[in-house]
Design a protein that fits this description.
This protein is mainly alpha-helical. The chain folds into 3 domains: about 90 residues, no CATH class; about 180 residues, no CATH class; about 50 residues, no CATH class. The protein has 12 helices and 8 strands. The chain has a two-stranded antiparallel sheet with strand order 1-2. Strands 3-8 form a two-stranded parallel ribbon. It has a two-stranded antiparallel ribbon with strand order 4-7. Helix 7 runs antiparallel to helix 8.
Length: about 350
Amino acid sequence: MANDPSFLGTNAGGGFLSAILVAFLVGYFVKYLKKVKWPKIIQPIVPIMVIPLIATFFITVVVLYLIGQPIAGAMSALYDGLNWMTTNYASSTFIIGAIIGAMIGFDFGGPVNKTALIFGTAVWTDTVAKYGIEGANFVPGTAAQAAISVAPLGIFLASKLFAKRFSATEKISANSAFGMGIVGVTEGAIPFAAANPLQIITASVAGSALAGGLVGYLDVKFYGGIGSPLGTFVGYIEQPIPFVTWIACTLAGITLTAMIIGFWRRPQPAVTTEAATEQKAEPALNTAVSEDDCHDKRILKPTHPDRYPVHHTGSSVPFYCRKRIPPWRCQLSRRFRCGS
């Protein structure tokens, strides 16, 4: 609901941030409804009919009028601002590219991301129609494509460079993020952003802004393909140094994102496992042995062990020196008996 453009009446949905906000609102609202003292006559149907009905109506009104309209107004103002900046500061390609890149990395497929993506496509389409392909403005569209994979690939790189700061579950999610990011899907970063929004959004915005600004400054032109380092091979990108420039720009953003995440996170606590104590196995012994073997290998229990020196053989049970113990004061282990 919060991410449905047709329901909200906007060009883009509210994204995962709006979905999280709506989830919290619904949760706390339902929690409050459960504390209400309902009439006894309707109490049997309160959890299965009354609360779901009221909660659905409440959140529908909230999403439609308190989220949808503000998003529509904010995105319209943002689009107009980008258009004005591109028109009046066309020479500031690094700044424009950095702003577009930062918007791409802000909400991972949400309204701000979609606004930057739509704006880049619209600017390119309008300028191609007016001035032809030679006079087209590639900066916003190229910056958006360069930044779109920075967050998921940056998370993946951080999980490799700072492995001790990621749990086993997070490492698996990071591998999934790589699979999505390498084909230009920025939503692979959402699980990490939901868990640590400030950390991941800050790192993503910084890295995406750097990647977008670099491609704008270096006059890279993205005609089509995949918005990731792989795009230099799959697609058509005009760049000063074939293949190298696009990869260098995107990797710069990915590396910055990985460094911020890695240094921001704390090392994961070590998994405490009780170390099993290895004990040496006792040698298999015959039930009848010689006097020397009885002295060397048998376990003797004197009546007064504190009077005689104690020796340890590697077994968990100590034995006492045979020579200083008279036979009549010695009790042999139940398992063995000494022979003559």
